[in-house]
Design a protein that fits this description.
With about 180 residues, this protein is an all-beta fold. About 5% of the residues lie in helices and about 45% in strands. It has 1 helix and 15 strands; from the N terminus they run βββββββββββαββββ. The strands form 4 sheets. A 4-stranded antiparallel β-sheet has the order 1-2-3-4, with no helix packed on it. Strands 5-6-7-8 form a 4-stranded antiparallel β-sheet. It has a 4-stranded antiparallel β-sheet with strand order 9-10-11-12. The relative contact order is 0.12.
Length: about 180
């Protein structure tokens, strides 16, 4: 199997979802049922408008989220419905969210209620998004955090401790979400 540049991968069921540098499939899906014979899933992936690379991926329930590099005429976070097919085949969706910078990394609360997004936005390095509001056409941003330590590049949510771990240009921050 020929592999092109990938920024991020996530395994969901027996499929690998990848944020890709391929301009014909920024979201790529690979069938991993047989690890000795990896093949593209039927349909290969999803091609987005413009040429900005897929930089982050998260898959949960029947949804996939793809983050992209910052662009002037695009939204950088895309929500896909994968309930009918492992490779998104809209409609419904996709749904778009304007990050205002690179969507560098994505973490999702296990129930799928909250998406934690690490970004390069100068005032919103951590953005908390409700995917159900996004797919319903409502304002999706619930809150944000302005880190004094520069752009965020990595994020992890620990469900047991209810903490968000945020990696920025200059620091590693631990944040307690909540009211």
């Amino acid at each position: 199997m020929t592999v092109h540049g990938h920024w991020d991968i996530e395994v969901h069921q027996a499929y690998i979802y990848a944020g890709s540098t391929q301009d014909v499939a920024e979201l790529r899906v690979v069938d991993a049922f047989d690890p000795a014979n990896l093949t593209d899933a039927p349909g290969v992936g999803y091609n987005l408008t413009d040429v900005h690379d897929g930089s982050a991926i998260a898959v949960f329930g029947t949804a996939a989220l793809l983050g992209r590099l910052d662009g002037t005429s695009i939204e950088e976070l895309i929500l896909f419905d994968i309930s009918e097919s492992v490779v998104p085949s809209p409609p419904p969706g996709p749904w778009y969210y304007e990050v205002g910078g690179n969507a560098s990394d994505i973490a999702v609360e296990p129930g799928g209620r909250y998406v934690f997004l690490a970004s390069s936005h100068p005032d919103k390095e951590l953005q908390v998004i409700d995917p159900h509001r996004l797919s319903g056409g409502l304002p999706a941003e619930l809150t944000y955090y302005d880190s004094p330590n520069g752009a965020a590049s990595g994020i992890f949510y620990d469900m047991l401790k209810d903490r968000v771990f945020l990696a920025t240009n200059d620091a590693f921050e631990i944040i307690q979400p909540g009211p």
